[in-house]
Design brief:
single chain, alpha+beta, Aspartate Aminotransferase, domain 2, 2 domains, binds pyridoxal-5'-phosphate, LegC-like, transaminase activity, transferase, LegC family aminotransferase, aminotransferase
Length: 380
């Protein structure tokens, strides 16, 4: 356990700081301040403005998708994304229990029910094999889609998440879901800039969602983006997140019950400044990951690195410790020394509101839950 003291001094030296070292702090090294002041000078601080349009264009370019829609946060983006692919009250959605609670809340907001399937131990994201096993046992294709033979409910979406920016086996997931007529929504909240087989994450599924919360790799203060290659769905996303107002010179005509999930221009201005620095952030994070990898390999500690065929954005870096006892000791020692570290999330079926939901064996999720710890990962 001596390596923990050495880890603490390594992190202090690497971040060149004797003070508290957070898990992930934003870095404003570009045009952020200038763009923010522009919004004030122009009075366009609120729900429309040039930075919203520019942000959407930048996101289309970065994710190589046809349409990006700025939204108020990633959670709202996920809620709408599920609605866009046809999730309705009483439906079931395939997803992972090893995730941040927003993934599952977005399912619940639609009145749908999560089905918790296991993750792969290497990607930490939804396992294609677990999906296949589940659907072989419970799936049935009918005229209106895939149904769960046991509950009689429709399975109307699959929602995998790219954990900490490490891509899931998204192509395998897409292939299985295509066979079963299930649309895929990617929770790419953590994986801006990550690639699977040289293609950016978020653009694989029917719809993908990003977060620009303050702790993510690029931030708008609070915010999110919905991306898709389906022009129709993209327009629908914009419509649904902007109160479904019919375009008219002066009349207020709203066509359905929709949302005010707009990203204000002031937030989009910040995001534009941040996106200009994305390549720099990715490069700095890769160099930090390399330093960690070298340090931990010398200590016999498993530092998680990107897998073959993928490029990770290294949003939050992590180590896999021996067991739960070791994990708890590591968390205690580092946090007491002013180095912020955090365990991976509590599995979703252990939370009171989701404890009755279906789950499969969860062998890998349980394994990771007891061992994975995030370590300081800021751009420096
Ligand atoms: C951050 C995050 C979200 C939600 O994003 P917000 O912008 O904070 O609403 C959703 N899913 C995952 C996996 C996240 O990490």
């Amino acid at each position: 356990m001596n390596y923990i003291r050495e880890t603490i001094s390594f992190i202090r030296n690497t971040f060149d700081s004797r003070d508290f070292i957070p898990l992930h702090e934003p870095c404003f090294a570009g045009n952020e301040k200038k763009y923010l002041l522009n919004t004030i000078d122009s009075t366009f601080v609120s729900s429309v403005g040039a930075y919203v349009d520019e942000f959407e264009e930048k996101m289309q370019y970065i994710t190589q998708t046809k349409k990006a829609v700025a939204v108020v946060n990633g959670t709202a983006g996920l809620q709408v994304a599920l609605q866009l692919v046809g999730v309705e009250r009483g439906d079931e959605v395939l997803t992972q229990a090893l995730t941040f609670v927003a993934t599952i809340n977005a399912i619940a907001y639609n009145g749908a029910i999560p089905l918790f399937l296991d993750v792969d131990s290497d990607t930490m994201g939804l396992s294609p094999k677990a999906i296949k096993n589940f659907l072989n046992e419970f799936g049935e294709i009918r005229e209106s889609g895939c149904f769960n033979k046991k509950t009689g409910n429709r399975i109307s979406a699959c929602l995998p998440m790219h954990t900490f920016g490490f891509p899931v086996r998204i192509e395998e997931i897409l292939e299985i879901c295509k066979y079963w007529h299930i649309p895929v929504v990617e929770d790419a909240a953590e994986s801006l800039g990550s690639e699977y087989r040289t293609r950016p994450t978020g653009g694989f599924g029917t719809v993908g969602v990003f977060s620009f919360n303050g702790n993510k790799i690029a931030t708008s203060g609070g915010g999110g983006a919905i991306v898709t290659n389906d022009q129709n769905l993209g327009e629908k996303a914009k419509h649904l997140t902007t109160t479904a107002k019919k375009p008219h010179v002066y009349e207020y005509i709203h066509e359905e019950i929709a949302y005010n999930f707009r990203m204000p221009n002031i937030n989009a201005a910040l995001a534009c400044g941040q996106l200009e620095k994305l390549d720099f952030f990715l490069e700095r994070k890769r160099s930090l990951a390399k330093l960690y990898a070298e340090f931990f390999s010398g200590k016999g500690v498993h530092f998680r690195q990107e897998l073959n065929d993928t490029r990770a954005n290294y949003w939050l870096m992590c180590v896999e410790l021996e067991d739960e006892k070791e994990k708890n000791f590591f968390l205690k020692e580092t946090n007491e020394s002013g180095i912020m570290t955090r365990p991976i999330w509590r599995l979703m079926y252990k939370l009171p509101m989701y404890k009755e939901c279906f789950r499969d064996s969860q062998t890998n999720a349980e394994y990771l839950e007891s061992r994975i710890v995030n370590i300081p990962s800021s751009v420096r």
